[in-house]
Amino acid sequence: MPHAPSEHHPAGGSSHKSHGSKPGGVHALLRLPDHGERFEEEWAVTQRRIEHVAATPVPRETEPAGAPRLLRGDV
Amino acid sequence: MSEPWELSLGDAAAAIAAGRLSPLELIDATLNRIERVEPGVQAWARVRADDARAAARTLTGRRGSAASAGPLHGIPVGVKDIFYTEGVETSCGSKIMAGFVPSYDATSVARLRRAGAVILGKTHTTEFASFDPSPARNPWALDHTPGGSSSGSGAALAARMCHGALGSQTSGSICRPAAFCGIVGLKPTFGRVSRYGVHPLAWTLDHPGPMARTVRDVAMLFDAVAGPDPNDPSTVSAPPVSSVVSALDDARGRDAAMRGLRVGVPDRYFTDGLDPEGAAAYREALRALGDLGCRVENVRLPDLFEAAMDAHELIHHTEAAAVHADTYRARPGDYGQKLRAIIEAGFHVPAPAYLRAQQIRTLLIDAMRTLLRSVDVLATPSAPGPAPAGLASTGSPVYNRPFSFLGFPSLTVPCGFTKSGLPLGVQFGGRPFEEVTLLRLAAAYEASTSWSSRAPAL
Fold first, then answer.
1. What share of chain B is helix, strand, coil (3-state, %, to 5)?
2. What is the mean pLDDT of each run of 10 residues along chain B (458 residues)?
3. Is some CB atom of chain A closer than 8 A to the CB atom of B265?
4. How many angstroms from the chain centroid is the CA of residue B224?
């Protein structure tokens, strides 16, 4: 979905309220500095990945992998 | 005899065991080699010549005694600069960690020492094993990247500045530099080699592993470092390790294992973006595997595969952001541009998206377990082409990433050279904890070609 360049950028800061985050956003919550860099390209790719992952069907009983626990006998 | 620094790890170890070469002679020859070629290659963050000589002197004194039994007795090894080394600066290629001197060895470093290896120094890494490049250059063409993030380990081995090295892989950081530098790299199964004392990039994706110039050399290092470690819980439920070197040296068993080994050729993904010379070398490698008696057959990757690679990236970015949150808060300007972009993006990945990515990981592990019932091994190109020109990028990990995501073992072995003289690699991926299958296949393939015997002209 098209959006203004300032939307959804990862270095949100206090002006970053475009996707419904609370005032101050992630940067304020985590007390991260807003150094003004936007990294638009990386965020655009990350957004596409989030959308792709969100659109991938996953049975709800699937346990998240975390660090894989692999046992040889399972194969 | 060849110059000592030219010997493979296995040949050097055999020469030392037979008394034809002393650890001190080997270290001195290797340090002289470093003095000659390092100014061009720049593989080392720091060389500890005095420490190495002192260790070699001690080991030389022990020759012939019961204490000399270590299989790596006197072997010069490089250690990627994210592995903690007691008393030796470990800066992770970063400003953040500059001056940090660990008080203990990473488990794999301690195990190398216990096996008799001499730690020559710390090899360059990209910043925190991510994508901001180090000064290291590719020994086959100094204006090309050696790959990353284990850039210095790959470059030092190709330039014959050490006989073995440690690297680590979160996306493609062992197999990519190994392929670009014309050497062998093994990314073990997750949980096979301890992560203790290795600075994390992304906890659930990080894999330490060995790199060397031949398959057997990698096997010798693997035997030394693999196995359970109470300091890394991921290793404690792993099945027991038996010597992969012994398995490789059992020629009859090896030949029998090759006959009828089912090698799967994936239907997509691993050839998207593959350059023509890489494609030709890959086809030739598959043909050679057939000549070795393997059954080479096409396989279809699970439909989920591409989404899973996006899931890998979300996990990678989110975990990297979490690893660095505290230091990034205090010193954002001391991070390189590529890692900053990753960290910033990682902060904004919603928690449910991270967990869904980990669910997709569960599903792909299950699907690939099923696929690996129909074949024993997957064979793919190691990279979309040779090492790219320039030093600003370390190239693409795209073909290595799936095995980091899965935690399944993977290995790269040289499979040819471009017309311009740059190395190419073929990658084998297999079932969890079946490194020996990959090593046997790679050893048989390596023995049927002469690619691993070539050295760059430096």
1. 45, 15, 40
2. 91 95 97 98 98 96 68 97 98 98 98 98 98 98 98 98 98 98 98 97 98 98 96 88 92 81 97 96 98 97 98 98 96 96 96 98 97 98 98 97 98 98 98 96 96 94
3. no
4. 15
- The catalytic residue positions of B are 80, 149, 173
Gap from B94 CA to chain A (nearest CA, Å): 20
Task: State the smallest CA–CA distance between residue A39 and chain B in angstroms.
Answer: 6
DSSP track, B356-416? HHHHHHHHHHHHHHHHHHH-SEEEEESSSSSPPBBSS-----TTTHHHHHH---EEEEEEE
Whether the Cβ atoms of residue B86 and residue B105 lie closer than 8 Å to each other: yes
Rounded CA-CA distance B169/B148 in Å is: 9
pLDDT at B160: 98
> Does B329 touch chain A if contact means CB atoms closer than 8 Å?
yes
Q: Which two tokens stand for residue B296?
A: 């080479």
Quick one: tokens of B317? 């970015």
Residue of A nearest to B344 (CA): A10
Residues of B in contact with A50 (CB under 8 A): 314, 349-350, 353
pLDDT tens, residue by residue, B309-326: 999 999 999 999 999 999
Q: What is the pTM of this model?
A: 0.94
Nearest CA in chain A to B355: A64
- Token look-up 């975390």 returns A66
Helix (H, G, I), strand (E, B) or coil at B198: strand
What's the ipTM? 0.93
Alpha carbons A18 and A9: distance in angstroms, whole number: 9
User: Is the pLDDT score of A68 beyond 80?
Assistant: no
Residues 6 or more apart from B192 whose CB is under 8 A from it?
B226, B227, B235, B238, B241, B409, B433, B435
**Residues in chain A, total:** 75
SS3 assignment, position B172: coil
Residues forming beta bridges with residue B123, ordered by sequence position: B44, B80
pLDDT at B82: 98
Contact present, B5 and B29 (Cβ < 8 Å): yes
What type of residue sits at position B264? G
Look at B369 and A74 and tell me if their CB atoms are within 8 Å: yes
Q: Which of residues 338-367 of B touch A (CB under 8 A)?
A: 340-342, 344-345, 347-350, 353, 355-363, 365
In this complex, do B313 and A46 lie within 8 Å of one another by their Cβ atoms? yes
